Amino acid sequence: MDYYQDSYRPDSGGGYDAPPRDGYGGGGGDYQRQNNPPLLTEKIFHDRKEFFLDLKENNRGRVLKITEKVGGRRDTIMVPMEVMQDLYEALGRIMDYERGLE
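The chain above was modelled as a monomer; its predicted structure follows.
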C-alpha cells in the first residue's frame, strides 16, 4: 500500500471520477481505503489539461495530492507536508531559471 494512498470521493462534486478499485490493497482482506474529503481544493485548467491540488489529511498526517487529468487519464502524486517547503523552493528555482531563458 502507498504511504499516502487515498481516493477521491465519487460524490464530492469535484468533477472527476473515482479511481478503479482493482489493484489496490495488496490482496489484504481487511484493507479499507480512506475516504476523507479534502480540507482544501484548488483547480487549474489549461488547454486540455486539468490539475487538482487537494490538501488532504489521513492517519499519517497532511498531504498535498496533485492530480493531472488529460483526456480521461489521471496521474496522481502525493507530497507530504513536511516536504512542501523544499518543493516550493525547487519550483521557485525552476521558474527563475526558465525566466532567464527568455
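The chain has one domain: 1-25+33-102.
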